[in-house]
Amino acid sequence: MVQDAAIDRAPTGQEIADWVRQRIRTGRFVPGQRLVEVDIIRQTGASRSKVREALKRLEGEGLVEIEEFRGASVRSSTLDEVRQIYRARMALEGMAAHDFTVNADAVMLGRLKALQDQLDACVRERAPDRFGRLNNEWHRLIVEGSGNKVIADHLQRLNVPIHRLLFESFYDEERLKTANADHQAMLALILAGDADGVERAMRQHIGDGFETLARIEDEFYR
C-alpha cells in the first residue's frame, strides 16, 4: 500500500491509482479538486510517468477528468444530474429484473442465490466495503441474466463513480440491513416467478438508493 511518504520501491501506476481512489473515497480529494502531479510525486515517491499512467487509468474509470492546459481534477457531478441518472436506472433496472425473472436459467438463479448468501454474511459480520462490492455484482448479474444487451449498454453509460464510491463506503449497520432486505425480497419474487412484482420492487429499491445517497452526500460534505 502506498503511504504518504516515499517508500523504498517506487510504486506502480496501479498502486498510485489505488492511492488516489482511496482519497476520493474518504473525501480527502473532493469533486472539482485539482490533482497536481508534483504533489502526488512528493507524497508517494512515484515517477512522473507512473502518476500520469494512474491518472489516465482513473480517467477511464470516470473518477478523474483531464483537460488540456489545466491537468487532472476529481470529476464532479451535481446531485440533480445524479437524480436524473437514478431515474433512468429505475426504469432500466426494473425492466432488467422483470426479464431476469422470465429468462434466467437454473445456473443464473444459483449464482444469484450464492451472491445473496454472501450479502447476508456481510450484514452479520458488519462488512460494509465487501457488501458494496457484492451489491454491485448482484445488480450486474440481474442485468446479465436479463439477456437484454440494450439495457446493459445503457446502464454502463449511466455510471456515476464518485457518488457510487460514497455509497459503497458509508453503509452503516441500518443501511446494510435495509438494502439487504430489499435484495432478499426481490430474490423471493424472482424465485416465485413474479416478474411484474420484482420490476416494481427494483424500481423502488433504486429510488430508495438515491434518497439514501442524497443523505450520505449531505452528511459527508456539510
From TrEMBL:
Listed Pfam families: FCD (PF07729), GntR (PF00392)
Keyword Ubl conjugation carried by entry: no
Transmembrane segments: none
Protein's UniProt keywords contain Cell membrane: no
Keywords attached to this entry: DNA-binding, Transcription, Transcription regulation
HTH gntR-type domain sequence ranges: 10-77
Gene Ontology molecular function: DNA binding; DNA-binding transcription factor activity
UniProt protein name: GntR family transcriptional regulator
